[in-house]
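Appendix B. One record, verbatim.
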Amino acid sequence: MSHANKQHGFTLIELMLAMTFISILLLAIAVTTIQISNIYNKGITMREVNQMGRTISDELQRSIGSSTPFDVTPKDSADNSATNTSHYVVRKSGGQNIAGRLCLGDYTYAWNYGKAIAGEGGATVYNKYTGSDSNIPVRFVKVRDPSGALCSDPTLMITKANAVEMLSSGDRDLVVHNFSIAQTKSDAATSQAIYAISVTIGTNDRQQLTANDASCKPPAEGTGDENYCSVNQFDIIARAGNKSEGGN
């Protein structure tokens, strides 16, 4: 007796269920990949901001530590009078700080705020290089300036050959958003003084930043890419006039 071969296949419903399952699986993989990528990009952005902040903080602490006590009364950027010996120059526009300079011994530090670099509100860049390098934005530079001329005469521009840019823009367009320094204590007997410094560093996507550049907007409010936005404030305490116990 012969038997006819019977062939069994998937029914249409089974095929639809299988395709639905595969589609859901692929969608889940895509969503997970996007989330991992976002977390990675956010982490890289935060790491760059923190690294630059630590570098600048350490640099300022070393320079202040090797300096004698100095005056940090904010000096207007147009004031080049011989009687004003402040080591801290502030540039304002529309009532807001947009740049500054700090002269410490052999070196002067100069910076432009992110809003000035972006030209926000008509703000112009104050700290510029001389000559053909004037189109290169100054972010936070360390300038060889033993005489402190850049603070004595704030109208002087910076010679690029004497400067080292400490705040690389990188892929995240890093800038200084705020800088302040104040003398908190002084001791005439030991010729020492303590200074409190606050530096805010972050990315410069103007669409992602809050009005005062102190933080990034919540995801629901920002119009840029939130994963490429990070702002951090670095508070520094430094002592000028450090001496060894032998007084050397």
